[in-house]
Design brief:
Strand content: 35-45%
Number of helices: 1
Shape: elongated
Number of strands: 6
Largest sheet: 4 strands, antiparallel
Structural class: alpha+beta
Number of domains: 1
Order of helices and strands: EEHEEEE
Distance between the termini: 6 Å
């Protein structure tokens, strides 16, 4: 399975980072990764980043939780 980045604006990337921070601070995420890159020539001009991320959520209630994916899974 390939995990292709998603085009994002600066505001969208900042919101994603804040979501990850909130999940970590509340004990709801124990692991993950984020990668953000400069856009390539195929990226529409309104986007400043290409972003891939995976991080666990739903751990605060003591369960296994789930995984949130950012990007295109192919």
């Amino acid at each position: 399975m390939d995990h292709h980045p998603q085009a994002m604006t600066s505001a969208q990337l900042a919101a994603l980072l804040q979501n990850i921070i909130n999940a970590i601070e509340t004990g709801d995420s124990w692991e993950g990764f984020i990668e953000y890159l400069m856009p390539d020539e195929d990226t529409p001009k309104e986007y400043q980043y290409l972003v891939r991320a995976r991080y666990r959520i739903g751990n605060a209630d003591g369960s296994q939780g789930g995984m949130r994916f950012v990007g295109d899974l192919r």
